[in-house]
Protein 1
Amino acid sequence: MTSFERPMPVKTPTTAPFWDALAEHRIVIQYSPSSGEYVFYPRVRAPRTLADDLEWREISGMGTLYSYTVARRPVSPHFADAVPQILAIVQWDEGPRFSTELVNVDPAELKVGMRVRPVFCDHPEHNVTMLRYEPAS
C-alpha cells in the first residue's frame, strides 16, 4: 500500500499572523472597523466595504458547532489512516465560521449547536500548528 504525506497549509504574507499566533496557541483573526465585524479567512481588504482597515485581534476561539459530517471513507488517499474523520464548521463567538476537524469525541455525541473549544495540534516536522475543536463540556 502506498503511503501519502498529508498536505499542510502554506503560510503567505496575508495569512502569516494567523499561523504565527496558532504556533503560540493563540487565535488571531482580522477585524474591520469600517464594517464593525470580525473577518475570516485572512484577506487584504474588508468584505463589503473594501476598506484597507483590517486589523488583527485575538479571540477566545470558543464557538458553537454549526455543521458537521462524519467521513467514514477517506476524503483523499492522504487521510486513509484517519477515518472516521469528523469534518466540521464552527461558528466562533465573535461571528465568523471556521472549517475544521473535531477531535476527542465520539461521533454519536455530536449535536449541532453544542459548545466547542479549540485544540492546538502542533506538527513540528512541518513547522505548523493546526486548529481543531472538541466538545467544551
Note: Residues 13 and 44 are 10 Å apart (CA to CA).
Protein 2
Amino acid sequence: MNVFETVESEVRSYSRGWPVVFDRATGAYLHDEDGNAYLDFFAGAGALNYGHNNPILKRAVIDYLERDGVIHALDMQTVAKREFLETFTDVVMKPRELDYKIMFPGPAGANAVEAALKLARKVTGRESIINFTNAFHGMTLGALSVTGNSMKRGGAGIPLVHATPMPYDNYLDGQVEDFLWFERLLDDPGSGLNQPAAVIVETVQGEGGINAARDEWLRGLADLCKRHDMLLIVDDVQMGCGRTGPFFSFESAGITPDIVCLSKSIGAFGLPLALTLMRPDLDVWEPGEHNGTFRGISPAFIAASEALRTYWTDDKLEKSTLAKGEQIGRTMTELAEQFPGTPMHAKGRGLARGLAFESGDVAGKVCRAAFERGLLMETSGPDGEVAKAMPPLTITDDELAKGLDLLSDAVHAVCA
C-alpha cells in the first residue's frame, strides 16, 4: 500500500487508470518518477491546450513571480488583471466583433456555469433551465442539475431540480425533426414546461462522448432561443480556447451566445482561471452579489495574456488544429474499417476526437493498452464507450504521428 491508497480519498479516478507517479512534464509528454515517458493525448482534460510547461508562458510567469507581483487579490484592481482584460478585449473580442462584459466567478469551470445560471435566473425572473442529453457542466449542484450523467448526478444526494433535458443533436438518430419536441412543449400551455430562463449547451460534448453538434443545429437553437425569449448559454469550458479550431467553438456556426462560460485553457499554463462572459445589458449584478476568495489568480492572468499574444494574433494555431484534427479523424476512420467485426466509429471536431466502441469495456481496454505503450487517453460517454483523444494544440507533427501509431497498436491489440 502507498500513501495515495492509504491517505487519499477513494474518489480519485485518473490515477487508477494510469497507476504511476508522475514527476515531470514538458510539451506533449509526461514523465514518471522512474523516467518513463508518456505521450499525452489527455492534456489535463483540456486545460493544457498549449502543452505542459510551455516555455514562453513559463518565462512570463517566472518573471512575474521574481518581481514579487501580486499573487492573490480577490477582485481588486491589479496590473496583471488590467493586462489580461486589455489583451482579451484586443485579441479575442474586437476581431470577432463581440461585446461582452467579463466576470471572474471563481477558479473553475463549474464556477463559470453556476454564475451563468444564477445570472440568467436573476435577469429573467424565471427558474427553469433547458439542458441536453449527455451534457456535462460541472459537479457543483447547479452545474450538476444541467448535467446528464446519472452516476455523477447520483452523487448529489438531493433532488436536482429546475432543469429539463432535451435531445441533443442526433440523439434520436435523425428520426425527429430538429427541435420539434422542444418547440411543441414551449408552444403548448398544457405541456407542463415552465417558461425557461435559458438554454445551456456545449457545441461539442466532451465528457458526454465527443458528440459534435452540426452548425445548422446550433443556428436553429440560437433562433429558437430568440423567438421564445430564452437566453443562450454556451459552455465553452473544455472546447473553447481553440480546441475545435477557432478560439470559441461556436464561431463556425456564426452564432453569438448571450452568455459564454470559459475555464480550463483560458488559464493557459494549467493555472486555475474562469470567466463568465455576458452581454452588457445582462450585467445586472449588485456589487458583491456573487463573489469568492479566488476570483482571478494573478499568475493565471499573466500566463493567459501571454498565450493570447503568442497564439491568437494570427490564424496559424487554428489552421494547425484543424489539420491535425483531420489527421486523427482519418486514422480513427481507417481503424474502424479494419475491424468490421468490432463496431466502432470516429467522431469529433478539431483536436477533440473520439473512437466510439459498442461498450465501455472495449474502450477501457483500448485506453489501458495505449497506456501500456506510453500513450495517455481517457474514456468518455455515458458508458465510457468512447476512447477520447485530446492532445495539446501545440503537439508537433512527429509527436502526433507517434501517438496515432500507439493508438493503432492499442486498437489492434484489443480488437484483432
Note: The radius of gyration is 21 Å.
